[in-house]
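agent: user wants the full assembly modeled, not chains individually. Plan: 1) parse entity lines 2) check alphabet per entity 3) run joint structure prediction 4) return tokens. Steps 1-2 passed, two entities, 580 residues total. Proceeding.
--- entities ---
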Amino acid sequence: MSAIETAKITKRFNSLTAVDNVTLNVKQGEIFGLLGPNGAGKTTLISMLVTMRRPNSGSATVNGFDISKQPDDVRKSIGIVFQDPSVDDELTAYENLDLHAAMYGIPSNERKERITEVMKMVELESRLNDLLKTYSGGMRRRLEIARGLLHSPKVLFLDEPTLGLDPQTRKHIWEYVGKLRKEKGVTVLLTTHYMDEADSLCDRIAIIDHGKIIALGTAEELKNSLGGDTIVIETGCSKKLEAALKKMKWVKNSACHNGKLTLEVENGEKKIPELVSIAEKNKLEIKSVSLRKPSLDDVFLSYTGRTIREENATAKDSMRIRRKAWGRK
Amino acid sequence: MRELTAIYFMWKREMIRFFRSKSRIIGSLGMPFFMLAILGTGLNSVMHVPGMEGNYLGFITPGILSMVLLFASIFSGVIVIVDRQFGFLKETLVAPVKRTSLVIGKALGGATAAVLQGVIILGIAMLLGVSISFANILLALLVMLLISFGFVALGIAIASVMEDMHGFQLISNFVIMPMFFLSGALFPLDTAPDVIRYISYVDPLTYAVEALRFLLMGTSVTPIATSIGVLAAFSVICTVVAAYLFGRIES
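--- prediction returned ---
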């Protein structure tokens, strides 16, 4: 049985299709990453899987339970860490966790023990009786992860769990996630737009853009699909050079972006001399040449034609974000 | 069982928050205190309410008490919007419990907090010299809880369809204030102009004021059974509407 299975799931907000015919299969015990820019539909997809929103069409199961027909069973078997904070600031950590444990049906004699256990895991046990007002952003996040684990869910949803956190805390949080999978066999579905995080942590990654899955595989597979190394030449994007280079058989793919010409080649280090001589022949100035092994950034660029960071709010996206904040039926 | 636990914990959360926010309690009791202490005592010597034995201060005490319940309850319902903005609502919405249980727990908690504030105002009124009959005090407390429960539910219903707190001023000026002024809290309705009197019949707070005036002061125009009946019906309707609207929130 798969931990999560979706079949052509679709969510529309008026004219905007936030999630478009997505079919996915997440195996048990897997750390699965949804990677995409803001407004790509990651959060909407998750909110349908956790039964917060109803799909317009298509279906999905989580832990074998249908999200539309058995929402209660789905809810009992999952843990969620939302993108935005969802704790009560005026309660203590203990009170927040106690409320959560009670809602999820953990008997009162086990609550204390469970709470201590999860708080130890995120190293917050010394702050158990402090008001959440006094917590820093990173501590809140850790508390929310602890809360998500309190009722021993089989699947944990993490929606941008490291957004806005400092690098050290980010690293910490990923350590917990790794530990979780190792020690408890929890399946984790996470969204992020930090490429490096997805790369190092996820077993498989789906790249999602404008509501559609555009690539899926292990980080390795995705990078290999680009066909080798990436050479970036700073030339002011000369069409002439691009045309000349395109004639070379070893250039598998090329794209011009921000005054930089990006080439995909195999054994890139050996191609640089040849490349420089072609440029000289064409009397073109090269300001710099760099070579790198492909990263997920390159994968994203190659599949969408943009880098993930410049995907800053176009009108459509800011509409998505607004809807995300105040969505209702 | 799980639903009862959920109701209890939602209630408990309201209680914890209530007892932690002492400055808010003092702040919200400021206006009713001044209305009693200044308006009430100031008009005491010049106002005589026909058909009532006591003085004006005694006349408005149930009215001010109802005001406290109304304000505190609606506000504690509408504050759901803030829970929504700050995310806590989501945590409860995805819990494996019925939305109706969340509404009931919240309404019970908000109502308990409102009644506690009402009791403080009653204490202040007594200090100002109002004589209150204790014969029906238990029933009075229950009626206070019933009124508050209905108004918290109304607040939750409003919050479920409101986008953010910007609309609250509107609610305050066009729902809460007219409800208060038309309820007979400050002047007797039986001698008021017909228009005001007729409108007051559809104001649920009228029956709250009447019920409390009967139970605490011993006189009222409306029979107590009618008042309690209307208030019970109002609370049930508000709860059903709140549960329906709250159940429709998607995130």
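agent: reporting back. Chain B has one domain: 2-248. Chain B has a mean pLDDT of 90.
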